[in-house]
Amino acid sequence: MLIDQIRKLSDKLFQETICNRRHIHSNPELSFKEYNTQKFILQYLNKNRIKNNKITNTGVYGYIEGNKSIKNNKNILLRADMDALPINELNNVKYKSQNNGIMHACGHDVHVASLLTTLKIINNLKDNFSGTVRFVFQPGEEKYPGGASKIVKSAIFKKTKFDYVLGQHVFPFLDAGSVGFKLGKYMASSDEIYITIKGVGGHAATPHLNIDPIIIGSHIIIGLQQIISRNNDPRVPSVLSFGTFHASGSNNVIPSIVTIEGTFRTFNEKWRYEAHNIMKKMVNGIAKSMGGNCNFIIKKGYPLLVNDIEFTNSVMSIAKQYLGNNKVEEIDIWMGSEDFAFYTQNIKGCFYRLGTRNTKKNIIYPVHTPFFDIDENALNIGAGLMAYIAITKLMNNQSLSICN
Questions:
Q1: pLDDT above 90 coverage of the chain, percent
Q2: Residues belonging to the active site
């Protein structure tokens, strides 16, 4: 049976998958600078005679065509992101990052290593299906405008009709051995906020002669929070958070300029843009009323990520076949954002979670922290499950029964 073949191949390649993951983890690269990671991926694909090309400077794209004679023009796209984060790793492991201040703290090393093995499995089983498995190793997920936004605008994507897109992401809130799915709306849109407030600086002992941008900025932050509590429909999850407030004064100096940076996230695209306009009016109004000037910029980020319900239901059914019902969980919405959402705007997509937690090994830390790591047993599931989903979808060429 196909499922047994994939499990055996995944087991056989397990140590190779671990080795690839550790190599990538030890050699992390920041967004849109993944040159050595790209080189490593290309070497692996060429060694295994898997067709590939470079895409968007540091990305990799390719495909595997099924050999089965039954006519099938279906295309399924598999995606892994490649970039690391500007974090100094504090784990004491043999495969610790060798690039100071850069770390695979979001598990993209896991995604790349898993997909490489997935493709090797599929390439070994291409006599079992017709249709085409396409893949992309995508740069720059961690940095706006997001590598996916560039990929979907590429010539390859404009001339190819994709029926499905599949992505997986590490999830330290699930035990290794399990996977998680969310039907429909799953991850929030995200936008970056930049505010520059100009006042009139001077001695702190003569505030009446100054226009204090710190006071203006404080009122702006408090005022903006009322947009969430009083303008937003409370049934729509929304978050407005500020992470920097920079004023270059001192204990007795009122500065002339204050800069503020934050993020806005929500689960409704219409409200998203309405909120942008309300924020702009409020910020400029507060600054003007207090005698200052303000420059308010919102950088449009990633859109709302929506998993296609029918496709995700079918993928969940396939995952239960491969792992068993007790290893497939339905998870809640997530206020984090993902540029995978650019793919799902035009392709039926499923973005699911790969459990990586192991409390007995003290593998419990969240992503984007210097102690993040995974139970490497998750790699076996990450590779085999995606291969089984991709081949099964092409073989069936139809939706499976809906999960209860």
A1: 95
A2: 302, 376
